[in-house]
Amino acid sequence: MSTLDARQLPKNQESLADYVTRQRETLGLSRQMVAQKAEIHLQSLGKIERGQTCSLNRRTLSGLAIALQVPMDYLESVARGQTETLGPSLKFCPHCWQPGTAPDPIWTDARAEFCFLCGTALQKCCAGCGEKLVSLTFRFCPFCGQSYQATSQAPSVSAVPE
Predict the structure, then answer these.
(1) Does residue 146 sit in helix, strand or coil?
(2) 8 closest CA partner among 30, 24, 29
(3) pLDDT tens digits for 33-53?
(4) Residue 43 near residue 78 (C-beta atoms within 8 A)
Protein backbone atom coordinates (compact mmCIF):
# COMPACT_ATOMS: atom_id res chain seq x y z
CA MET A 1 0.00 0.00 0.00
CA SER A 2 1.30 3.45 -0.82
CA THR A 3 2.02 6.20 1.67
CA LEU A 4 -1.16 7.89 2.87
CA ASP A 5 -1.87 11.53 2.22
CA ALA A 6 -4.59 13.93 3.28
CA ARG A 7 -6.60 13.38 0.08
CA GLN A 8 -7.22 9.77 1.11
CA LEU A 9 -8.91 10.78 4.34
CA PRO A 10 -12.68 10.71 4.21
CA LYS A 11 -14.24 14.15 4.42
CA ASN A 12 -16.51 14.96 7.33
CA GLN A 13 -20.03 13.61 6.68
CA GLU A 14 -18.93 12.02 3.36
CA SER A 15 -21.04 9.04 2.37
CA LEU A 16 -19.54 5.68 1.49
CA ALA A 17 -20.76 6.16 -2.10
CA ASP A 18 -19.06 9.54 -2.42
CA TYR A 19 -15.85 8.34 -0.75
CA VAL A 20 -15.45 5.23 -2.92
CA THR A 21 -16.22 7.21 -6.08
CA ARG A 22 -13.79 9.99 -5.14
CA GLN A 23 -10.97 7.54 -4.37
CA ARG A 24 -11.58 5.60 -7.59
CA GLU A 25 -11.52 8.79 -9.67
CA THR A 26 -8.42 10.10 -7.85
CA LEU A 27 -6.58 6.91 -8.83
CA GLY A 28 -7.88 7.24 -12.39
CA LEU A 29 -9.49 3.80 -12.30
CA SER A 30 -12.65 2.64 -14.02
CA ARG A 31 -15.36 0.82 -12.09
CA GLN A 32 -14.41 -2.38 -13.88
CA MET A 33 -10.75 -2.04 -12.83
CA VAL A 34 -11.69 -1.46 -9.17
CA ALA A 35 -14.13 -4.36 -9.20
CA GLN A 36 -11.44 -6.66 -10.60
CA LYS A 37 -8.80 -5.52 -8.10
CA ALA A 38 -11.28 -5.79 -5.21
CA GLU A 39 -12.50 -9.17 -6.47
CA ILE A 40 -16.14 -8.10 -6.29
CA HIS A 41 -18.87 -7.98 -8.93
CA LEU A 42 -19.11 -4.85 -11.05
CA GLN A 43 -22.80 -4.63 -10.10
CA SER A 44 -21.86 -4.64 -6.40
CA LEU A 45 -19.45 -1.75 -6.90
CA GLY A 46 -22.14 0.10 -8.85
CA LYS A 47 -24.58 -0.32 -5.95
CA ILE A 48 -21.97 0.94 -3.50
CA GLU A 49 -21.22 4.03 -5.62
CA ARG A 50 -24.94 4.78 -6.10
CA GLY A 51 -25.52 4.59 -2.34
CA GLN A 52 -27.75 1.51 -2.56
CA THR A 53 -25.37 -0.53 -0.40
CA CYS A 54 -23.84 0.82 2.80
CA SER A 55 -23.24 -2.38 4.76
CA LEU A 56 -20.16 -4.25 3.55
CA ASN A 57 -18.81 -7.61 4.63
CA ARG A 58 -15.14 -8.08 5.60
CA ARG A 59 -14.16 -9.57 2.24
CA THR A 60 -15.64 -6.63 0.31
CA LEU A 61 -14.11 -4.09 2.71
CA SER A 62 -10.71 -5.73 2.41
CA GLY A 63 -10.88 -5.92 -1.37
CA LEU A 64 -11.99 -2.31 -1.75
CA ALA A 65 -9.27 -1.13 0.63
CA ILE A 66 -6.65 -2.84 -1.51
CA ALA A 67 -8.13 -1.62 -4.80
CA LEU A 68 -8.53 1.99 -3.59
CA GLN A 69 -5.21 1.97 -1.70
CA VAL A 70 -6.74 3.14 1.58
CA PRO A 71 -6.84 1.58 5.06
CA MET A 72 -9.80 -0.67 5.72
CA ASP A 73 -10.48 1.45 8.83
CA TYR A 74 -11.32 4.40 6.56
CA LEU A 75 -13.96 2.42 4.68
CA GLU A 76 -15.44 1.01 7.89
CA SER A 77 -15.66 4.45 9.47
CA VAL A 78 -17.27 6.01 6.41
CA ALA A 79 -19.81 3.17 6.24
CA ARG A 80 -20.69 3.82 9.92
CA GLY A 81 -20.72 7.61 9.45
CA GLN A 82 -17.87 8.09 11.95
CA THR A 83 -15.18 9.92 9.96
CA GLU A 84 -14.28 12.57 12.54
CA THR A 85 -11.80 10.32 14.40
CA LEU A 86 -9.83 9.20 11.36
CA GLY A 87 -6.44 10.07 10.14
CA PRO A 88 -2.98 9.70 11.46
CA SER A 89 -2.83 11.11 14.92
CA LEU A 90 0.31 12.72 16.20
CA LYS A 91 1.67 10.81 19.20
CA PHE A 92 5.06 10.10 20.68
CA CYS A 93 6.68 7.95 23.29
CA PRO A 94 7.98 10.12 26.13
CA HIS A 95 10.93 7.75 26.59
CA CYS A 96 11.96 6.90 23.01
CA TRP A 97 11.24 10.17 21.15
CA GLN A 98 14.15 12.54 20.60
CA PRO A 99 13.02 16.21 20.65
CA GLY A 100 12.99 17.80 17.22
CA THR A 101 12.75 14.49 15.34
CA ALA A 102 9.74 13.06 13.59
CA PRO A 103 7.70 10.54 15.55
CA ASP A 104 8.11 6.90 14.61
CA PRO A 105 5.50 6.13 11.91
CA ILE A 106 4.06 3.24 13.92
CA TRP A 107 3.09 5.69 16.68
CA THR A 108 0.79 7.56 14.28
CA ASP A 109 -1.37 4.49 13.66
CA ALA A 110 -4.89 5.24 14.92
CA ARG A 111 -4.87 2.07 17.01
CA ALA A 112 -1.44 2.61 18.60
CA GLU A 113 -1.68 3.33 22.31
CA PHE A 114 1.68 2.12 23.57
CA CYS A 115 5.26 2.32 22.31
CA PHE A 116 6.20 -0.88 20.52
CA LEU A 117 9.79 -0.58 21.80
CA CYS A 118 9.37 0.09 25.52
CA GLY A 119 5.65 -0.35 26.23
CA THR A 120 5.14 3.20 27.56
CA ALA A 121 1.78 4.85 26.91
CA LEU A 122 1.99 7.21 23.93
CA GLN A 123 1.38 10.89 24.57
CA LYS A 124 -0.96 12.72 22.18
CA CYS A 125 -1.46 16.02 23.95
CA CYS A 126 0.61 18.50 25.90
CA ALA A 127 0.82 17.51 29.56
CA GLY A 128 0.96 21.20 30.48
CA CYS A 129 -2.14 22.59 28.77
CA GLY A 130 -3.87 19.49 27.39
CA GLU A 131 -3.89 20.75 23.79
CA LYS A 132 -3.65 18.12 21.04
CA LEU A 133 -0.17 17.83 19.48
CA VAL A 134 0.07 19.70 16.19
CA SER A 135 3.78 19.29 15.48
CA LEU A 136 6.85 17.64 16.93
CA THR A 137 9.24 19.72 14.85
CA PHE A 138 10.07 21.65 17.98
CA ARG A 139 10.29 20.39 21.52
CA PHE A 140 7.93 23.00 22.99
CA CYS A 141 4.14 23.24 22.93
CA PRO A 142 3.08 26.18 20.70
CA PHE A 143 0.14 26.90 23.01
CA CYS A 144 1.73 27.05 26.45
CA GLY A 145 5.48 26.94 25.72
CA GLN A 146 6.12 23.97 27.96
CA SER A 147 8.67 21.37 26.83
CA TYR A 148 7.10 18.11 25.65
CA GLN A 149 10.08 16.17 26.92
CA ALA A 150 10.07 17.73 30.39
CA THR A 151 6.33 17.25 30.86
CA SER A 152 6.30 13.74 29.51
CA GLN A 153 8.71 12.19 31.96
CA ALA A 154 7.82 11.52 35.54
CA PRO A 155 9.88 13.56 37.98
CA SER A 156 12.47 11.57 39.85
CA VAL A 157 12.04 11.40 43.58
CA SER A 158 15.16 11.23 45.62
CA ALA A 159 15.12 10.28 49.24
CA VAL A 160 16.89 12.71 51.51
CA PRO A 161 18.44 10.98 54.53
CA GLU A 162 17.55 12.58 57.82
Answers:
(1) coil
(2) 24
(3) 999 999 999 999 999 999 998
(4) no
